[in-house]
Design brief:
The complex is a heterodimer. By secondary structure, chain A is mainly beta. Helices cover 0% and strands 48% of the residues of chain A. In chain A, the strands form two sheets. In chain A, strands 2, 4, 5, 6, 9, 10 and 11 form a seven-stranded mixed beta sheet that branches. Chain A has a four-stranded antiparallel beta sheet with strand order 1-3-8-7, with no helix packed on it. The model of chain A has no long low-confidence stretch (mean pLDDT 92). By secondary structure, chain B is mostly beta strands. Helix content of chain B is 0%, strand content 55%. In chain B, the strands form two sheets. In chain B, strands 2, 4, 5, 9, 10 and 11 form a six-stranded mixed beta sheet that branches. In chain B, strands 1-3-8-7-6 form a five-stranded antiparallel beta sheet, with no helix packed on it. The radius of gyration of chain B is 13 Å and the shape is globular. The termini of chain B are far apart. Classes of the chains: A mainly beta, B mainly beta. The interface between A and B is medium-sized, with 25 and 25 residues.
Amino acid sequence: EAGVAQSPRYKIIEKRQSVAFWCNPISGHATLYWYQQILGQGPKLLIQFQNNGVVDDSQLPKDRFSAERLKGVDSTLKIQPAKLEDSAVYLCASSLMDRGPYEQYFGPGTRLTVT
Amino acid sequence: SQQGEEDPQALSIQEGENATMNCSYKTSINNLQWYRQNSGRGLVHLILIRSNEREKHSGRLRVTLDTSKKSSSLLITASRAADTASYFCATAGMDSSYKLIFGSGTRLLVRP
């Protein structure tokens, strides 16, 4: 089966600019996650969707970050305006989650550099 | 905040040796998972152990869980150069979201 797809793979922007990342989860996976991974650290959950509803966005900086998952499939994560500290890898993951806790399947990530 | 903390932060071993990584966490969990991340890539799920399990095996991997000590260990036997990667533990809480909280990882280098 096809894995989690993300684009772009790399992005370089200046601070105060905006950027958007796209994710296509594995077909049939109801739950979608966005993580931020700063160099040398583990991934930190930004937002979790169950179908097209938000389950958890407690660590999403809502003044600058937004995410949506239209029709319960693809998802977009946006940063506007970007700050230097947003430089990180943004990982998208998906899981079945229809019968309890399952492993998550990760995409390759988008490496964002803010200058 | 990160719940799991891995120890050691970095580990260098010779090919063929065993590698042991430890993870400690703070609050009650539903399950604990281990993931591998090769340089510049996404994470790959290795193994999931539930809170009522004490040990689990998968190929060359052995995971133990001690809920009384809030700790887990990952053992990789007969390591290979291809095992070079960062290894993360992640804990799923007791609430229905089962969201994962990742530790800071152990960087493993297996020398040929």
